[in-house]
Amino acid sequence: MESPKQPGLFGPSLSLFYSSILTILRRVYFPARLLHHFSGEMRVTLFYPEASLLKRLSRRLNSTLFFSSEIWPQPPEHTGDQQLPYTDVPFPRRTKRDRKPYVTPMKTLIERAKLERKARKEQPVRVLEEPPENGLLVPELVEVAHSVYHARRFLLSALYQLVRFIPVLRCESCDEVHIGHVGHEIRTCTGPKSRFRNALHVWRRGGVRDVVFFPKCFHLFDRVGKPRVGHDERFSVPRIPAIIELCIQAGLDIEKYPTKRRTKPVYCIEGRIVDFESVVEDGETEKSFSFENVKPFVHSYSLVTKPLEKVFVDNNSSNLDQLSNEERNQLKDLSIRTLDSWFEMTSGAKKIMEKYVVNTCGYCPEVQVGPKGHKLRMCKASKHQSRNGLHAWQEATIDDLIGPNYVWHVEDMNGLPLNNNLKRYYGKAPAVVELCVNAGAPVPDQYRSMMRLDVVSPERDEVDLVA
């Protein structure tokens, strides 16, 4: 007969002891009021000091606890078949040392690179069929490129008129921008000597460049044949706004910045692009690259600025109260058209970016439109010594191509400035949207949640009374 199993070293009293410890930890270290800050399930794993003791208790005690909490924020309510969009207030990166988040996960990028390497070994010589990788244009995006270019032109011309009536302020020490007569009192300044001012901003008058920012990149004559700019070519290659370069590569023709247009696809031989297109005569090349036969693209926005310019240029007042009813209506119409051009430019740029690659540095705001980033050793951001000054290129987003400059939303421009103690009740919006809303344009639906229009902020003397 087998001898009966002897009880463990510590007996059943030890399991009761640790169960009481778990109960105390749940009551002391994980109060119920903290569980509302988590969504879904929260897993807490307890680590014991003695590894041998943990091995003995692994069969008797499950050391993993599950706490359920309410989902926050609540999902938007359904109104019929439509769903209200929800966008939270954007927060900047914690520190400049942190890298920008990847648009595509790194595992997906690695798997994609392995598949491309495998396909290259199986078929070393192949014809690139899909545009724009084969050097040809995407036909359905040519008109989109023209509309984006003209929408940007109208946006800049309209912003120069709106800035005369709606004041724009910027900080002297950092990149903070504010729309209003008086700057806010939120302590978010990170510039030099900001600690002596308790992180308060030093405001001065700003302009259109502070409202929207278009980073520049190098212009590529042949985006497929020579996609990279070397370090020695940094002074010979022109730099233009990245959104214009994106429109040029998508089909826009500008005489000042010529580009190569192919009629036949290129070949890929062991990862290198080879162009076997027949060499035409010199007269034909000049004819193909001349812009005399190009049909001009007339946009409706270019016909609107002329009658409005006469009214606003003559009036030098910056106070909306001094305007007549007719001038206010024209200012409101101009702000509505400005918002329409903003949305047309951003939506069109997103469509083009789905086909045409745009790269950005993971640590600095440098942008390059093209299949690859340039090789200039000019990065001065974090960890640039390990890269020898080269940029850490990754996939860009629309915010990298068009700097929206998020600002705090002000409900009453003639009221008191925004208080630092109430900053969690304030919302944000792109500076263009905030400028147009203060000029009379209706608030767009996609920015209502971001601007927190449904939140009633308490008064300054009621801060201590609000939970």
UniProtKB/TrEMBL annotation:
Residues 170-256, 360-445 form the APO domain. It comes from the Eukaryota. One of its GO terms (molecular function) is RNA binding. PROSITE patterns: APO. This is APO domain-containing protein.
